[in-house]
Structure formats: structure tokens, C-alpha cells
Amino acid sequence: xxxxxxxxxxxxxxxxxxxxxxxxxxxxxxxxxxxxxxxxxxxxxxxxxxxxxxxxxxxxxxxxxxxxxxxxxxxxxxxxxxxxxxxxxxxxxxxxxxxxxxxxxxxxxxxxxxxxxxxxxxxxxxxxxxxxxxxxxxxxxxxxxxxxxxxxxxxxxxxxxxxxxxxxx
Length: 169
Prior knowledge:
Elements: E1 2-7, E2 15-20, H1 32-38, H2 42-53, E3 56-62, H3 70-79, E4 91-97, H4 105-117, E5 121-122, E6 128-130, H5 147-168
Parallel strand pairs: 3-4, 4-5, 4-6
Antiparallel strand pairs: 1-2, 1-3
């Protein structure tokens, strides 16, 4: 997941800067009884604070078994239990990848439902679905090799910047 910050000086074009959010890979599996006994873990609170500080969030994720990867869903479950839900009113854009034909569309559908349930402001179009990902990403460098995909991502980022500005007003 990327934390995203935009600056909107009236005399210049928008400047985007990206910050990679801390990993949620070591979050314990969400359990309401554990939360009641010990509270929200410090790394979960820090992850949520980073989201709160961002102007917008871009979630880039693969699709696993036609849905959201378990770690990401677990992080969202933890985030939903904080007193002030960090995704509430936060502009969020999605990008996904899969080895198959639909490029993570099913994951995005499920993720949109989960984030809408916690009041995230979901960005619509253009959408980014990377199908047949192994053919569009250099295995050694992790860089995109598909120029058409690069163009769609640029279009999404420009539109998302406008969306963030509109939502933040």
C-alpha cells in the first residue's frame, strides 16, 4: 500500500509524492476478544496514523483466490476497530494485478465493499487492472514493461489528484 500526498499550490501544477506505508504483515489476526483484552497493537495504530496523515491512499494489491489477500483484509479489519477509523472520508484508489485475464477485478470489487463499509471515499475511473502480470512486469527489476499500462496509470494518478482535491474541499 502506498501513502499518497498531493500539494495543490494555486500557481503550479499538482505535485505528487509517494510514501510506502509500513508493512501490515506482522499484524496479529484480528480477534475482538484479544482487542478487548490488550487494545490495538502499536504497529496497527502506527499504520492507521500514517493513513490519517495522507491526503489519499493508493492500494496496489494482487488478487488471491478471486479476492482480497488475507493480510490486507486483516489490516482493514484492525483499522475498522479503532475509535476513529483511519479510512473514514479518506480518498482511496485501487490498482491490482493477477496472472489471469481479469487483472484483479474480483479483488477490487471485494476491496471496494470492505472499504465502503468503513466510509472510505472510493475513486472510480480510470481503473487499473494488470492482467497477465508476468508479461508486463520485468521479473528482475519489478519495473513495468507495458507502455499502455504505464499510460493508464498516469491517467489514473492525474484523475485521482483531482478527486483528492475535490474530496478534501
